[in-house]
Structures are given as structure tokens and as C-alpha cells.
Design goal:
single chain, two-stranded parallel sheet, globular, about 110 residues
């Protein structure tokens, strides 16, 4: 949803185009200047937004690992430990697993 190559094709309304364009500008600013990026959106769109940020970082010559990535969420729920492991693998450079290990409870 957030990649530059697909932004225009996904715009179905002026409001949607504005949202996609704003996200693109925000990610470009994050890549160039930010120490922290707090993702506040659907977890279904997280991977796409993260890939877009990685692309912007590459464009400006910055290592994405220099940016601390946080996710605003009420909680992270998965059906299995394997799915949770997959999530942590995607954000491994942030070392969230080690920091969160003491607070995770599996049911």
C-alpha cells in the first residue's frame, strides 16, 4: 500500500490519495531525519510500510537499523508461537524479543 510504484494505482478517492501521499512524505522524512519511527496502523500493512521505509532509507543512504522501530498496538496476538516468532524475525534488528521476553505470556 505504501510503495511509491503502487501509490497512484491504489488511489480510489481523493481522500485515499492524500493519505497515501502523506505516508510517502512521512516515510521519506523518517528515513532522512528520524531516530525513531512509531508505526500506527494495521498489522496487515506493517510489512509493506516497513519495506517502503527500507526503500527510502536506501535512497538517502541510511542504514534502517539506525532507526528504532516501535509499533503502537494494544497487544500482539498470534495463534501460535511460530507466528509470533515470524513477527519478531521481521523486526529482529530492534531486539524487541529480548526486551519483551519477560512480559510475554503464552496461553
Amino acid at each position: 500500500m505504501w510503495t511509491r510504484s503502487t501509490s497512484r494505482s491504489r488511489c480510489r478517492s481523493a481522500r485515499r490519495c492524500g493519505s497515501v501521499a502523506a505516508q510517502e512524505v512521512l516515510l521519506r522524512i523518517v528515513a532522512k531525519h528520524a531516530d525513531v519511527w512509531n508505526y500506527n496502523g494495521s498489522m496487515a500493512d506493517f510489512d509493506e510500510a516497513l519495506e517502503a521505509l527500507k526503500g527510502h532509507c536506501k535512497d538517502v543512504g541510511r542504514d534502517i537499523d539506525e532507526i528504532r522501530i516501535t509499533v503502537m498496538a494494544g497487544g500482539i496476538c498470534y495463534d501460535s508461537k511460530d507466528e509470533l516468532d515470524g513477527f519478531f524475525a521481521r523486526i529482529a534488528p530492534q531486539r524487541l524479543r529480548e526486551r519483551a521476553a519477560a512480559r510475554l505470556h503464552f496461553v
